[in-house]
Amino acid sequence: MSTSSRAPEWYRAWFGEEYLALYPHRDEEEAEAAVDLVLRSFGSAPGTILDLACGAGRHMAEFERRGLRAIGLDLSSTLLQQAHSRDARLLLVQGDMRYLPFADASFRVVVNFFTSFGYFAEPEEDAQVLTEIRRILQPGGCFALDFLNAERVRSGLVSEDERSVGDRRVIQKRRLEADGTVVVKEILILCPGQREPETTHYERVRLYSPPELEELLHQAGLEPEHTFGDYSGAPACADCPRYILLGHAV
Predict the structure, then answer these.
(1) pTM for this entry
(2) Cα(58)–Cα(92) distance, integer angstroms
(3) Measuring CA to CA, how many Å separate 162 from each of 118, 168, 170, 171?
(4) What is the CATH number of the domain that holds 16?
(5) Residue-wise pLDDT tens for the chain (250 aa)?
(6) Could you tell me the CATH number of the domain that includes residue 197?
């Protein structure tokens, strides 16, 4: 049985306490740069912002710090609790991005940061996320989709690495599946003295190329206008770490 079929909904189990313990380095400076890029690109101060897959709330907190109204949605109750601990005033909703619990045309801006797209087993489910974004955006509303650079992931894939987090060993194994259209990371966590992992988690992301992403956005009624290769606003290129699209609902 393949890794993909073992963990078709890997995101339901992974973004919990162990994720927070193993990845404590998601920093505030990166969130500030991402928010800067969005606000520079959109020009005037936007209305209500939805941070879709808001995680622990670092981007939300940055929007709020600038006096903007933001609402965060995430599937993980653990990450939402972390966001609440960061700032108890944050407006947080638990939900699935395929079925957004908001009325049509509720938001002026929707942002989706840090590769929170491409998680689902079928491409049609990813397309459904974009359709939902368009539904809740006001006509002419703005969106930002922050994705990885798929070609760089393919060409620079590191098949295995190991690091220590406290007294635990973390082994990460990566491979491409489905003719290179999906990247899978297997995360094995070993306690001191163990030869077999205490727990194993998975990450699985569909590797959409820039043209594929743009076509998906067009089909959903979202018009990409700006593309960037990182949070500084550098142009998108083959070697850039990110592929960030910003545009408007049509």
Answers:
(1) 0.93
(2) 13
(3) 25, 11, 6, 4
(4) 3.40.50.150
(5) 344 445 668 999 898 888 887 776 567 899 999 999 999 999 766 689 999 999 999 999 999 999 999 999 999 999 999 999 999 999 999 999 999 999 999 999 999 999 999 999 999 999 999 999 999 999 999 999 999 999 999 999 999 999 998 888 999 999 999 999 999 999 999 988 777 777 789 999 999 999 999 999 999 999 999 999 999 999 999 999 999 999 999 9
(6) 2.20.25
Q: Are residues 87 and 180 in the same domain?
A: no
Domain ranges, residue 185: 152-205
Looking at the structure, tell me whether residues 24 and 133 fall in a common domain.
yes
Is the domain of 37 the same as that of 138? Answer: yes
Q: How many domains does the chain have?
A: 2
Long-range interactions of 153-159: CB distance < 8 A, separation 24+:
153/183, 153/207, 154/180, 154/183, 154/207, 157/183
Residue 122 neighbours by CB under 8 Å, 6+ apart: none
Q: Are residues 145 and 156 in the same domain?
A: no
